[in-house]
Every structure is written in structure tokens, then in C-alpha cells.
Amino acid sequence: MSHVYDRVALIGLGLIASSMFWAIKRAGLAGEVTGYARSAETRETARRIGLCDRICDSAAEAAEGADLVVLCVPVGAMGNVAQEIGPVLKPGATVSDVGSVKRHVIEAVSPHIPEGVHFVPAHPLAGTEHSGPESGFAELYDNRWCLLVPAEGSDSEAVAKLRDLWERMGANVEEMDADHHDLVLAVTSHAPHLIAYTMVGVADDLRRVTDSEVIKYSAAGFRDFTRIAASDPTMWRDVFLTNKDATLEILGRFTEELFALQRAIRTGDGEQLFDYFTRTRAIRRGIIEAGQDTDAPDFGRGKAAQ
Amino acid sequence: MSHVYDRVALIGLGLIASSMFWAIKRAGLAGEVTGYARSAETRETARRIGLCDRICDSAAEAAEGADLVVLCVPVGAMGNVAQEIGPVLKPGATVSDVGSVKRHVIEAVSPHIPEGVHFVPAHPLAGTEHSGPESGFAELYDNRWCLLVPAEGSDSEAVAKLRDLWERMGANVEEMDADHHDLVLAVTSHAPHLIAYTMVGVADDLRRVTDSEVIKYSAAGFRDFTRIAASDPTMWRDVFLTNKDATLEILGRFTEELFALQRAIRTGDGEQLFDYFTRTRAIRRGIIEAGQDTDAPDFGRGKAAQ
């Protein structure tokens, strides 16, 4: 297959970047992939496991001469990295990112993109609770969504090329406006993460129930929360700080609803509870039908979990 | 292998009972298993798929002459079923249940247990989001916990026999006091379920984000909530109504913590968020080490989900 880009640079080498590398290799989508991570230990690991064709000791060195530079660092670090690589970017190159928040990234990165370089923000909706250079795998994006968030007036050829890359890494691609992206993600990802973190924290705090009991008896419900709450702390701190308004709006609505259900419990209103639970069940069916999850009971964990 | 009981009766034929039947058959733990479900359609399905050796048309008929009768109906229906079968119970028989709440079940069932019959409440901590007679499978209890909640002065031989049954169905068994059980489960299961139901309901309500967007982009976080929120509405209504105090206590603490984290987001206190998320990550590690979940990324969903 023909390359999409001659040279791709991955700045930041965690789960997302390392999965991109293996997906690019799987389909032969780039001539050379360079990589950079701020931590010397991460760069060392990357060299050891063959992650990237060439690991560089600075972001600028990795980005220099690249046709596509993808910023794969926490949202709060995007601006600094863009500032660092701005001066070495090749005319006609594309800069993209994989941040979970888009409005903030656009505001932080855009000022550092020189004339003649295209900035096409992106967000692949895929992940696991693992992080770091060794957590990536080529199949992460298969049949997952990648949202492109091009600014008005973006170069359509640059957008089409990036779409081609993501599709050939296995993803389904759609375009979305930055503010709408941030609201949709606040609902489907950011608020649920904060809620899961909170519940796991409450369990840990409770003196009358020991940690060991919480851990042993976590099969029903709580276990799934702990998976979500095991995600990378730096990444998630940045998400909440940079998608503050949408996240707080959704959490406000969540609290209202939770209070209404608590009242139903307190007053013994079984009908309200039953109706609510019946409605939420239908949403699950929609997700299965949309192919975004497996219908296997308990995620097909069955024997694997033992 | 020798039978644990000559005759076992399963009252209610959902996920838990049908999995018990297949687990009993797998290890040859009973001479005959009778079954009863209130719905004629469920009894018909059970007969068609060979669930139970004999399907009866009343709970009393199924329970009559049984050495072990297991109540596998929603918590709110336990008392009525116990009343129905009480008069036909065989002297020396054991009655047990599988309810997710124990104090309420004990209060509802005990008055109907005749002299000379042993009541040993139990709660297997296993399940999936599926329900009904066709959802069961023999491996459901393998390496999962089953909590026995015998009253003080319970017949130790009856308790030991029930423990033997659960262990040979694959479970690890521990004994626990009823009130402590209800508190532990409020933390690990009941509150997380209500929270997941609530978040899924909020997403459904939000007019500016379409259901189809919620469904399509649910990969990160929200998807796991929808799985939890797809659980059986009748069962969960009863759980919340009958474990009211402990659930409301945990939800109260949850709300306090959530408010603290919301304030940290609003004021931009990244350090507090980072510390909190780092602490919750450690709990996840404990669960993996305790063998209650798989360390495979994304539950090993990878290819299965496609």
C-alpha cells in the first residue's frame, strides 16, 4: 500500500501514540515515524521495544522535516509543545493532536502554528485504562470513532489526508465543531470519569468497610468503576481543567437527577425507579446495535477474568 | 461425584437460577432439580431449552419434597413466595435465597419458615447485564464470591452443606453478618448502580446532544455505565427500596465528595484532582491482584467488540 505521509512525528509516547505507531506499521502508512517523549525513561523503553523508527531527544528534532506531527501529550501540555516545535515545522506540513478536549487545544496551539502549516485537531475515541509506551497495540482504533475538528477555512486536502490516515488505521472518521465536541465528550466521557473516580474514592474512605472487602466483593458494578478510575491521572486532571464549563454543566444536571432518584428511594416510589431503569436499558440496546460494544455477557469476561 | 442434595428446587428462573442449574449439572450436585417461574412464558422457555429436570406450575409443587429450596426471585417478592411454599416444606429441608439485600429478606422470609426447616440466606456476587431463563451459563460462579448470611444459632450442618454446594458450583464462600453485608453491597454494588442509571438518564435527557451521538461516541467511560444501567429494572427497584438506609448513606457521602471535586475543577485546583485520581488508581490494582477482574486492556474486549 502507498504511504499517506512520508514522515510522521509522534510527540508524546503513551497509549495513544504507541497504538498509532503499531497501526501505521500494520498498514504501511508512513515512510518513517519519529518519536519523542519528555521522560528519558520512556524514550529508553521505546528504543528497547522498537516503538518508532527513530526516537529523538527533543520534540523539535522529531518534528523537523515531518509531513505530519501529532501531539500526543496531555491537553495541558499541548501549548508548550506547539511553541517548541513551531519554528522547525516544514512548510505544507500538518499538525494534529489527539486531545480529549478541543476548544482549549485549539486556543493553546493555534498561535504557534506558522503560516503555511495546517492545523487539524483530532480526537480518537479509544483507550484502555493502561498508559505508557508499552500499552499500545495496533488494533486499538479498529472500528472506533475518530473525530476531526478542523477550523473554518482549513485546507481541505490536509483534512482529507488526515482522514485517510485514521481510516487506514482502522477508525471511522467524522467531523465535528469544537464546542459541540466538548459538550458531547463531557456527557459520554468526562462526567462519567469524574463520577467513577468519586465513587472509588468514597469506597476507599469508608472506615466501616475495609479496602479488602471493597476489593474482594467488587464484582457487581464497582469493578467497572475502578477500571475507569484507573485511567492516567495527569491526562484526566488536564481534561477537567480545560473542559471545565461543559463538565460542570453535566455534573450539575447529574446531581439534580441523582437527588430525584434519592428522593424516590427515600419515599419508596418504586414506580419512578422502575420507569427510570427501564428507560436507561433501551440506551444500552442502542449501543450494542451501533456496534460500539459487545453483547457478550459481562463483556465476555467469563473465563478470561479468572 | 456424590450429590450434595437429592432434590433442589429453584423458584424463579432468571440469570442466577439458570446459571445455578447449569453449574449443578456440570458437577452432578443434585439428583433432581425442579423449577418454577411465575410467568407461563418463562416456564415454556425453560422446558424448551431443558432448564431444570422438571418445570412445575406452582412454587409449592416445585418446593414439595425438596431438600434445598432456593428463592431466586426479586427481593421484594421473597416474602410472598416463602408464604406460598412454607406449608409444603419437608422437615429438615433448607431454604436459601440469592437476594442482593439480606436484612430485608431475612425479615420477610423467616416468619414463613416452619419449625424443623433451616433458613440459610445467601448472595452470590456474580451477574451480567442479561436476564431471563436463557441468560444463564455454568461458569457464572467460577471464582466469584458467594456470601452466606446465617442467623445466629443456624444449624451448622445445613450451613456446611450449602457452602459445599456453592463451592462445587465454582464459588468462593464467606460468611457475613446481614447488616454488614448490606453496607458492603451498598458501596460495591447498589450505589454504583444508581449512579450509572442516573448518568445514562442524564445523557438521554440532554437535548443538545442527540441520543445517536451519545450512542456512537460512548467508547470512553459511558459505555461501561450503560452496561451497568441495563440490569434488570425490577430487581434493582427492589434492591433500592429494601436497602434504603445504607444506599442513601453511601449516596450522601458520594455527593459530598463529588461537590469537593467539582469545586476543585471550578477553582482550577489541579493538584487536588491529580492526588485524588492517583489514589483511586491504586484501588484498581488491588482488584486485579485479588483476581476479581482481568488485567487485559479494556476487559480484553479488543476484537470481540467489533
Q: Please name the two chains that share the biggest interface, counting residues whose Cβ lies under 8 Å from a Cβ on the partner chain.
A: A-B, 114 and 114 residues
What characterizes the major β-sheet of chain A? 6 strands, parallel
Helix content of chain A: 40-55%
Q: What's the number of structural domains of chain A?
A: 2
Assembly state (oligomeric): homodimer
The SSE string of chain A, one letter per element, is EHEHEHEHEHEEEHEHHHHHH
Secondary-structure blueprint of this entry?
2 copies of one chain form a homodimer.
Chain A: E1 5-11, H1 15-27, E2 30-36, H2 40-49, E3 54-55, H3 59-63, E4 68-71, H4 78-85, E5 94-97, H5 103-109, E6 118-119, E7 122-124, E8 145-148, H6 156-168, E9 172-175, H7 178-205, H8 211-216, H9 222-228, H10 233-242, H11 244-267, H12 270-289
Parallel strand pairs in A: 1-2, 1-4, 2-3, 4-5, 5-6, 8-9
Antiparallel strand pairs in A: 7-8
Helix pairs in contact in A: 4-5, 7-9, 7-11
Can you give a write-up of this model?
The structure is a homodimer of 306-residue chains. Chain A is an alpha/beta fold and 306 residues long. The first copy, chain A, has two domains: 5-176, Rossmann fold, CATH 3.40.50; 180-268, Orthogonal Bundle (6-phosphogluconate dehydrogenase C-terminal fold), CATH 1.10.3660.10. The first copy, chain A, contains twelve helices and nine strands. A six-stranded parallel beta sheet of chain A has the order 3-2-1-4-5-6, sandwiched between helices. Chain A is globular and about 65 Å long. Chains A and B meet through helix 7, helix 8, helix 9, helix 10 and helix 11 of A and helix 7, helix 8, helix 9, helix 10 and helix 11 of B.
